[in-house]
Amino acid sequence: MNDILIFELQNGVFKQNSNKTITLIKKDEYEDNDLFPIINNKDRNIILIRHKRHIYLIRQLKDGTFNIYTSLDCQTHKSNGTKTNNGQYLVFLDNKYEIYSSYEILNK
């Protein structure tokens, strides 16, 4: 699966909202690993998700839908990382080059 499915609470039951589904880059030749948590920073309106070999920065739009703001190809499906507490930096272990990489997340 290469989609993020959005469920919303309606009358005490979670129901899928297909209008908010986020389609990710399709790379079937790679498997997904659980080395990178899904991180939500409400203050900066950023959701970080790693799926297969990409790290996605996703933002919620004013109409409630979601948009992939940018993505980073890690060149490997075996990377783990996190963001700083204030949400300003993404830090991850680049297993391909065996180094830590950090990126500043700019609000635009």
UniProtKB/TrEMBL annotation:
Q: What is this protein called?
A: Uncharacterized protein
Taxonomic path: Eukaryota, Sar, Alveolata, Ciliophora, Intramacronucleata
